[in-house]
Amino acid sequence: MHDNFFHKLKVYYEDTDSGGVVYYANYLKFLERARTEALYSIGYSNKKVKDDFESLIIVKSCNIEYKKSAYLEDELTIRSFVKSINKTSFSMSQIITRGDDKIVDAQIQLVFVDTKGKPKKIPEEIYSKFKPYFCDTIKS
Question: Is 17 a catalytic residue?
């Protein structure tokens, strides 16, 4: 059985434009927060990855599709799962929902690099902890 990472957040005034609609670039921040919390939930942080493995996890590409708008004080859920993984990178799917409404559908390609920016093998310790979250479908 595969799991998803779940991260909940509330839309604040600072996240919106003057009409109370979430500004499109802020969804990228929401997705980043969810990935950071996913990493934290398996016992790591970006700082720990840097300190312990001399590695950084960087975004190589992001494909985001905006389905509906989110608004001031909406409560959103971000579901994240590892879609594919190879020696130095992995792909995550992230979906932002408000109740049953899909707000955003994003595909993120992440790469492990050394502190000079060169691709580096994903440490086995991290790979094995991500394994339960590897799947090709998202569950509720």
Answer: yes
